[in-house]
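Before relying on records like the one below, remember that each one covers exactly one chain. Contacts with other chains, cofactors or solvent are not represented anywhere in the record.
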Amino acid sequence: MKRGKRSTQIIISDRDPGLPYSKGLMASQVIVSGLSPYRAYKVAERIEDHLLERGVRSITSEELQALAVRVIEEEAGERYARNFVRWQEVARLDVPLVLLIGGATGVGKSTIATQIAARLGVVRVIPSDSVREVMRGLFSRELMPTLYTSSFDADSALREPPSRTVDRVVVGFREQTAAVAVGLRALIERSAVEGTSAIIEGAHVVPGFVDLDRFGDRVLSVPVVVTVEDEEIHRSHFQARSADSSARPFDRYLTNFDNIRRVQKYIKSQALSHDWPVITSYNLDQTIGAIIDLVVDRATERLARGRGPAPEPVLELEGGKTR
């Protein structure tokens, strides 16, 4: 594309006061389909190329959205195009989204939450460890000792040892999670009252400890548990974390790795028994895409309940064909 063509402005005619087409803004819309930021920007560039090649100088929002659907389908596939169409409808929900991401230490929850927040435009991302830190200021070590340990070694703070038939690592983790869950419920209530979307992530986001039914239709709650089934891949995450932060030494995680795997097994069993989706993470982009798919599915179901069955989105393709 020549520089002269790139410098030509394309006006979105039905937006006051006639805003020009922006690849950055379009990419931020496309990214909710589940595409990576790089691929979303490439789609936005392809849309601009298409308009300039056709000599288009003015376009309506509806025409631009239809073109975006076609380009996404061509560049990335039907799944992403369908998500883009569905998200335009989802964006009209009148309740806040509360996405809860649980999982054991080291499965990538924080990275996943941050990436999804950027793609969905959610400004509030809250780690459950932050809630635990706040609760430490309210309860002394003597009163609630498990708050002063990590999720994978809370058994070291148990006042009374459990019976030999019970996994003491899980018992300690359950005691800590029960305390932190009080704060998590307060965060969800705050989102409901303020109408502000949020992503809550952490090891303490455990099925059975957070009752989402109590919030009814005041929020769109989307829970998910992320696991890493391959032990060596899981172990490698701590190696990478150690390189990034001297404050969290790899040796500590390595020493407690068996405990971390036991906590993961427990969280997964809780998810299966409470019908929470479990996503096995092999690739960051795929995991993010799967969670965004889940959010879109839940939001679409919520809209359908409010107004009866919704028709399947129609993808407009080149040549006048539909799918």
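The beta strands are 11-12, 58-59, 97-102, 125-127, 198-202, 220-227, 278-280.
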